[in-house]
Queue: 3 jobs
Job 1
Amino acid sequence: MSGFKFSVGPWNVHEGADAFGPDIRPAIAFADKLATFRKIGFDAVQFHDDDAVPEINGLREPEIIARARDVRKMLDDNGLAAEFVAPRLWMDKRTADGGYTSNCPEDRAYAMWRSFRSIDIANELGCDKIVLWLAREGTLCAESKDTVVSIRRLVDAVNKMLAYDPKIKILIEPKPNEPIDRSFCGTMGHVMAVSAMTDDPSRVGGLLESAHAILAGLDPANEMAFALAMGKLWGVHLNDQNGMKYDQDKTFGAENLRQAFNQIRVLKDHGYGSGGEYIGLDVKAMRTQPVEISYRHLENSLNVVRLLEEKVDRFDRDIQKKLIEARDYEALEMVVLQLLLKG
Ligand code: GLO
Ligand code: MG
């Protein structure tokens, strides 16, 4: 049993294409994904705007809302909720140079259109969270954008979303690079600073993905703690990452169990979830995995979270306290290693 509620995005079950090779598994229908998500223990689904409403660019606003309503019915039928909607701004030709921070005003207007439609969809799906993974908000060529102007444009875009809907909350998901070279919002510190610059900081928080923190050379648990200290950790994307290379989205804990333990520890110790927050996964199956067993990475990640919750419960806080008092951190470290090594 877990003390958390879990969410997953439909893109977490995918056809296996990477930058060097095409799809390798057949696509699984959205309806089938929903049924399996529920079966293996998920409570909610994360959406891109066009996961909910495919071909969104060609549709008018009432049609987008009607299609989102159908998706809500599918969720209800499967006993699932929607966690958030994220405008997928990195796929379109118009956002090749970024959306909110593009040098081109038409691109920026398109980015706002998708953002407002994401809010409309969120309202239909019954959720109040918009996630901004700022994929291409940064530079490929360092001299191609004025960073000061770009940060102000980003704040301006968030303000427009806040004004569009007085109930909506914006969760920024920081990532230091990929697909962009230098991103404008690389860490949770950036996110909190952007939040403070907006018209309503109480509605702008963060979503921390483990792999993104590792790509920034930072500890994911500390990044979560930073937002928790401000009451603004409203989402997580648990996964794992082997060093500073391409974004791997590995099964949670598969590379660094102690780092994973500390993420669950900080979340449990500070009541994450008590405001309705989900433990979200953002994991990818290995390309070698056949379709029949292409949910394994999700099941494994859920199991790792549950096992680590038990470890956190078994972490001896009296010994921890004594060793902190004695300042014997070598001994404390061994207590943690033994906890993780023993069954
Ligand atoms: C990629 C991101 C991506 C987002 C998702 C939701 O690196 O982690 O998967 O989490 O698009 O905004
Ligand atoms: Mg993510």
Job 2
Amino acid sequence: MKIFNTLTRQKDEFIPIKEGEYRIYVCGPTVYNFIHVGNARPVCVFDTLRRYLEFLGNKVYYVSNITDIDDKIIKKANEEGTTYDVIARRYEQEYFTDCRGLNVKPATVHPRATEHIDEILAITKDLVDKGFAYVANNGDVYFRAHKDHDYGKLSHQPLEDLEAGARISVGEIKEDPMDFAVWKSSKPGEPAWASPYGPGRPGWHIECSAMARRHLGDTIDLHCGGVDLVFPHHENEIAQSECANGCTFANYWMHNGFLNIDNHKMSKSLNNFFTVRDVAEQVGYEPIRFFLISGHYRSPLNYTKEVIESCKASLERLYTCRNNLDFAMGNASGEGKELIAKAEAAKAKFIDAMDDDLNTADAIAAVFEFAREINTLSASESKESLQAAADMFDSLTGVLGLLYNRNTDDVPEHVKSLVAERTEVRKAKNWARADAIRDELASLGYVVEDTASGPKIVRK
Ligand code: AMP
Ligand code: ZN
């Protein structure tokens, strides 16, 4: 599989350190509110990557953190007259509810920043001991960006360019404007943890360096997040981890493009966002997942109500195809074997697409092409062939994390027996009874379609 690596700015063959095992870290949410549809993009995209790597037979160690201490959480707690942890735990639960709704697999570990203060202070100490970080006179600890000669390698900008806009302001306690906080001394009334530098809390970036090291090791295979995290968040994570550990932090970096509204990034600060919860209440969760993986992950994606509706309609076509397969299997009388080969061809196309930098758009197109073939051929196929098609259909849609809300056998027994009776009375040419049964079925909300494979019950 090839992936576009932000470090090298090209598609690289994705080779893990240990064959058959991938260690992946994905920056997770800051839990102070419901997530919006833009936040759900990395969640769904990288869950799809994980599913694909597992489908190929690999073991995936997948770590996605919870930022449970930060200025926005403290602000929200103050507004509500409560403590930061009440806010953080509440919205962490809401986040997991949305993840379940979006059919996102639980991570191997969902580490919380506040439960890794020891690990955070251990890295901070390593950096201070090696001279990469210093303690300012107010108790803050800063990283010396100039001391790291690789600084800027992920965003491909030399330090001088990054520095151009930065100014040291009056009263600044940093040695240099590019230095960034590893540890922040606490202000009165703020949550604080004891440290050798006085009471304080972690800076923004250090938690990911510490939790990746703790749960995945010094060098990981892949680190992911939205493209807005490249600078400064990921650049700073690299600086801290590589200077503390003395080795490469992550071999590959993947970044998803923005979810936009009218060409502006969906974000809380621009107030142009829709929460996943609100959209799910209107159209369900699955169309949101479908939408988020319907384009290539590096391209911008434009959110509109219409496009979500059309995703819902597309999903309905897949549900119908799969339900038709169930029906055909229950009535299979043909000899055809064509779908066995079509299933293998669909798989090959699907893999080609996914191997090319996780091209979910083309992978979805391969599934739809397969669905059309199923619809065309199923009436004349053998049971074995239909089963092979169903298995492949489930497997490929499962890699995309789709089709989890399909209503399977939802036809009640009394409806089925009415349909069976209708078949009998029609054979006996008892049209009056057949019509009466049709009316009774209609009053129950069902119609019967007579197909080549026999009567099919459809809910209206
Ligand atoms: P935040 O809680 O703002 O740190 O965001 C959590 C994740 O969502 C990060 O990986 C961000 O890069 C990502 N993200 C935030 N807004 C968007 C957006 N509009 N489109 C795509 N990804 C986003
Ligand atoms: Zn992070």
Job 3
Amino acid sequence: MLVLGIETSCDETGVALYDDSRGLLGHALHTQARLHADYGGVVPELASRDHVRRLLPLTRGLLEQTGCRLGELTAVAYTEGPGLAGALLVGAATAHGLAYALGIPALGVHHLEAHLLSPLLSKPAPAFPFVALLVSGGHTQLMRVTSVGDYELLGETLDDAAGEAFDKTAKLLGLGYPGGPALAQLATSGTAGRFSLPRPMLASGDLDFSFSGLKTAVLTVVRERALEDAARADLAAEIEAAIVEVLVAKGLAALRHAGLKRLVVAGGVSANLTLRARLAIAARGRGARVFYPELEFCTDNGAMIAFAAALRMQLPAVSSQLSARAGGFTVRPRWDLETATQ
Ligand code: KG4
Ligand code: ZN
């Protein structure tokens, strides 16, 4: 089974080829970061137009690079949601067009499900069941994952996502877009503790998060006085420490709640090295293990879409519904993972 995966939910155009017996054959990515940098965030219309420009050349290049032919494909998978409507439509329309022309099925994939399953691409892969901490630019969720397609939401952010907290506070520090990696980089030369920021909902007793207060607290600090370089680095380190401390505490609380010892962390923020270091220490103390995607698959990419589709296609309920037919299709800019089950 050879699946072409297409990701266009936000500002990365990603394509990949996954074969269920040979594994990931290759992937290609075009990031739009520079396109949106001047605006300090993603401009949806520019994102859609760039996906239109990039998707087919990227796919052609991937086929050349892997030596695969379109005729060998079993299915074309694409991100159906959640994400930017126009951006999603580019991937969905391309996937359905290709699939129709080739006489094979097109399969819509939930973007968060793909993030959540992406650590299974690595070795050793976590066994089911596990707790997943999804930390992306748009979502922060804790899920109990019993098997492919069986997800129970344990907690989520009430306002900003962890990635959003990184991005918004980075903007307040005058760092470019996307802010997460830039803030993490600046934090390496600073020391947490010189500034004192809140750890939102750390002691709330549930598995929910709230990060918008952090942004307000940082705004108060930067408004009070101009910060010299060392102070900016210290503030960055404190911001990172505050976000990481909450994620670590809630991740471990979720393991306790679910009675499990395996924690999977996925989504863009799972690339954060401080989060990885802190989680390693905390998990060791509890006899738990933490699993991540490869660094290149933490942020949006086509590999996780092709892989999630290949896993879903093995579910009887999904495979029996797959057919190569022309017809309408839809995208789901808003879509709960719990409803995207088998
Ligand atoms: O999963 P992702 O690529 O896109 C969404 O599905 O939203 O996540 C992007 C988010 C952005 O907020 C970005 O700032 C954050 O992940 N991010 C990081 C790091 N790398 C990416 N945040 C903190 N540290 C990083 N190293
Ligand atoms: Zn994502």
